Amino acid sequence: MEPPPPTAPAPPSGASAGTEAADEPGATAQGPGNAGDPKGERDFSPAEAFDALYAGTAPGLVRQTYLLTGRRALARESVERAFELAWHRWPEVAVDRDPGGWVRAAAYEYAMSPWHRLRRAHRHPDAPPTEPGKRALFDALLDLPPAYRRTLLLYDGVGLDLPETAAETEASTPAAAGRLLTARAAVAERLPDLKDSGSPAEQSALLHDRLGGLARAEHVPVPRPARAVRTGSESKARLWTRSAVAGVALLIAVTGLTLHTAPTHYEPPISPPERVGGVPPRGGPQKLTAQDRKLQKSLSEHLAHGPERLVPQLR
Asked: At what angle do helices 173-190 and 132-143 cross, to 10 degrees?
């Protein structure tokens, strides 16, 4: 699979504007480590580096995510959520080789989550563009499976090469190439001019321009200011911290109450009484009846002589 030609860069405000603008802020994101720079450049604080990255990548990334989901509100929410996560992990993101790519991957993962189908606001995509050509491309993108749509957008829209596309989509390079070819063929069925393109490089360049034009033409919501995103990230972090502390305190209280009220030794349960049947009669002399006791009394009251009783003789 040959990559898109170098003469077809992504439009600065289109689908790939976020990636191109992320290069310079990505370098300044490592500002705290530039204290020993021989050029004497000013060190950037973490907030300044984050704000620079946000200003350079957030608007274009919202447009990219809109092409990925077809939902404007979800695109903005995904990008803001990705930057909140980036600020929460800023020591890790600041030293990343491509901070813009880190945020893009987080935004794509959030936007493609299947749980959004359960939300009423994001259950159906927004209205497609009115222009026939852009509408055909928009419908063709949304008809692709999410993994194929993401691969096509990264390779032909953002301009990543095939190994980078495979790495970001967590697939092997042959699998990413297969997805790309399948997605291009499906989109070409909707776009006659794309189907009539000669080489794969020409097809990729044309699709790059069409994706950029679609991203620029659609009105997408503007993300919140960087300061608001940082504040929201810090508020969520404090909320999760307090929730975790409250959960641990509740667990300790329940454990202490259990230890205080639990018995100190084991008491086996007493089985309930049951009627026993089928037991054989007891052996030995039976219990005297009233008639037997009457006869016994009568015999004890008679004299010890006579034919009725044998009296032993003493010798």
From this structure: 140
Angle at 275 between CA 272 and CA 279, to 5 degrees: 135
Q: 166-175 — which CB contacts under 8 Å span 24+ positions?
A: 168/101, 168/104, 168/105, 168/108, 171/147
Tokens representing residue 113 in the block: 């989550």
Report whether 24 contacts 56 (CB < 8 A): yes
| DSSP letter string, 110-133 | HHT-GGGGGSGGGSSPPPPPSSHH
Phi-psi region of 284 (alpha: psi -120 to 50; beta: other; left: phi over 0): left
Q: What Cα–Cα distance (Å) separates residue 117 from each residue in 120, 139, 169, 221?
A: 7, 18, 21, 21
Among 180, 219, 158, 227, which residue's Cα sits nearest to residue 8? 158
* 294 pLDDT tier (thresholds 50, 70, 90): confident
pLDDT of 261 higher than 50: yes
Which range, of 77-86, 141-150, 199-208, averages the lowest pLDDT? 199-208
| Integer angstrom CA distances of residue 34 from 23, 24, 37, 90 | 17, 14, 5, 16
Mean pLDDT score of the chain: 81
Measured in degrees and rounded to the nearest 5, phi and psi for residue 29 equal -65, -20
pTM over 0.70: no
Question: For residue range 223-232, what is the model confidence (pLDDT) as tens digits?
Answer: 889 899 999 8
The answer to whether the CB of 177 falls within 8 A of the CB of 165 is: no
Can you give the pLDDT at residue 66? Answer: 92
Contact 120, 76 (CB under 8 A): no
Q: Is the dihedral of CA 92, 229, 123, 115 positive or negative?
A: positive
Residue 221 above 80 pLDDT? yes
Residues 68, 108 contacting (CB under 8 angstroms): yes
Q: pLDDT class for 29, splitting at 50, 70, 90?
A: very low
The 3-state DSSP class for residue 70 equals coil
